Amino acid sequence: MSTKLNGKVAVVTGASKGIGAEIAKRFARDGAAVVVNYLSSKQGADKVVAEIVAAGGKAVAVAGNVSVASEAQAIIETAISHYGKLDILVNNSGIYEFGSIEEITPEHFHKQFDINVLGLLLTTQAAVKHLGEGASIINIGSVISRLTPPGAVVYTATKGAVDAITGVLARELGPRKIRVNALNPGLVETEGTHTAGVIGSEAETGYVAQTPLGRSGQPNDIASIAAFLASDDAYWLTGEQLLAGGGLR
């Protein structure tokens, strides 16, 4: 078990399943106390917390919609009230819906931008007042902003925005010695990609064929990189977009 996050406190949004859950568990194994945020899956978040606690770690679950300012604030305040500080924020909450340009509606647009972009901004805004020198913000983007596949214009746009926001905030928060990086996964096998019918589909076969390492990602592939970015080992990295897709780009 690593101790490189000993004494640190982390908030991971959207951590009841998939990549977020694995990041939360990895952070706890590395010594951090973790706030596990969820929107609807209390059962999933409680399971993540139970696994962390059973392994000797510290974690608490908190409900909250990151796209609502008061709820984003409450998520961050949970870290302060339970653990007294905040060192790491992982903006992982995200949704995706696909469709051709003819199928785009205002609802389709706002649903994704509210969670993927506005939610990231509101949660970060709530966090920065508590973050000090050496803190790390990790924004979960996607290689889709480089791939730009057809039928994904709005989702791709949200992840392009995440890349841009990461660069701006790295410069804005750099003087306060707060690091901001984007971690951009490729195709990852999660509950979400199974539910969406991606895993096992021709689309997955196509992406794997374009991936030099020859497989879809697993949540732990992303969590290990997040743990590095959260740690002092990454003290000289900020404003970066780390593509974590086995070479898919």
Residue share in helices?
A: 40-55%
How many strands? 7
What fold name stands as the CATH topology? Rossmann fold
CATH C-level class: Alpha Beta
Main β-sheet: number of strands, strand sense, barrel status? 7 strands, parallel
Enzyme class: oxidoreductase
InterPro entries: KR_dom, NAD(P)-bd_dom_sf, Sc_DH/Rdtase_CS, SDR_fam
Organism: Methylophilus luteus
Domain Ketoreductase: 8-191
Describe the protein.
This protein is an alpha/beta fold. It has a single domain (9-243), classed as Rossmann fold (3-Layer(aba) Sandwich), CATH 3.40.50. 45% of the residues lie in helices and 14% in strands. It is built from 9 helices and 7 strands, in the order βαβαβαβαβααβαααβ. It has helices spanning 18-29, 42-54, 69-83, 106-128, 144-147, 153-173, 191-195, 202-209, 219-230; strands at residues 9-12, 33-38, 58-63, 88-91, 136-140, 179-185, 241-244. The chain has a 7-stranded parallel beta sheet, with helices on both faces. Helix 1 packs parallel to helix 2 (42-54). The chain is globular. The model has no long low-confidence stretch (mean pLDDT 96).
Summarize the entry for a quick read.
This protein is an alpha/beta fold and 249 residues long.
Task: Give the secondary structure arrangement, pairings included.
Elements: E1 9-12, H1 18-29, E2 33-38, H2 42-54, E3 58-63, H3 69-83, E4 88-91, H4 106-128, E5 136-140, H5 144-147, H6 153-173, E6 179-185, H7 191-195, H8 202-209, H9 219-230, E7 241-244
Parallel strand pairs: 1-2, 1-4, 2-3, 4-5, 5-6, 6-7
